[in-house]
Amino acid sequence: MSDQVGAGLRERKKLKTRATLVAVAAELCQRQGFDNTTVEQIAVAADVSPRTFSRYFPTKADVVAALAEDMDGYVAEALRRQPGGITAHEALLRAHLEIFAPRRGHESPAFTRMAVLISIVNGATSMSISPFTFKQRHAGASVEVLAERLGVRAGDPAVGLVADIWTLLFSSSFAGLGLPGHPPINSGILCERLSATFERFRRSWEPTPQATQHPARDVAPHASGPQR
């Protein structure tokens, strides 16, 4: 029994240390920028050694990407609630609009977490941090639900294709938000941009009616015989 209690305490301590590293990394990256934040700074602020940091996260990008862990659960739950008869991308759009919608006048937990990620990504110039970083590391439950909608296994290339396209649409929607000369990061602006980006994407695969018809050229009447 004592061994089980000891193991439980150690596990809780590990989870607490991990959560502290993620929170500290987010705070430092928001305050001084991802590019200017080092693993050593994160370790010192979390009161651990760089070696301890490396036991939890291989790189600085990994600890920031851990912020997306909760997001995957939010998306998966909302995605399950979407009706059939719509495309996978529209289901993803509806799911994100749902989880980002304000609750009783306050920003939702999902948007609050996403706002931190957007702030860090938009303020970084390093190629090591991007929306694809989060998708690759923490897209688990949502990928399973997406595969179910598509009627394939989670490892099917179709799932990866849909997810990659969505990541591109989503990142295009929040590009620049929060930076000088750009709109602030808030749920209303993000949802509006996301809907507009999706609409442009949707129109790109639908047949486009001709805006104008080429006027018919005058053609001389066919003469079946000599004119009189």
From TrEMBL:
Domain HTH tetR-type: 15-75
Molecular function GO labels: DNA-binding transcription factor activity; transcription cis-regulatory region binding
DNA-binding stretch(es), residue numbering of this chain: 38-57
Pfam families: TetR_N
Domain of life: Bacteria
Record key words, sorted: DNA-binding, Transcription, Transcription regulation
InterPro entries: DNA-bd_HTH_TetR-type_CS (IPR023772), Homeodomain-like_sf (IPR009057), HTH-type_TetR-like_transc_reg (IPR050109), HTH_TetR (IPR001647)
Keyword match Transcription: yes
Positions of the UniProt region annotated as Disordered: 206-228
PANTHER family: HTH-TYPE TRANSCRIPTIONAL REGULATOR BETI, HTH-TYPE TRANSCRIPTIONAL REGULATOR RUTR
Protein name, as recorded: AcrR family transcriptional regulator
Organism for this UniProt entry: Mycolicibacterium fluoranthenivorans
Lineage start: Bacteria, Bacillati, Actinomycetota, Actinomycetes, Mycobacteriales
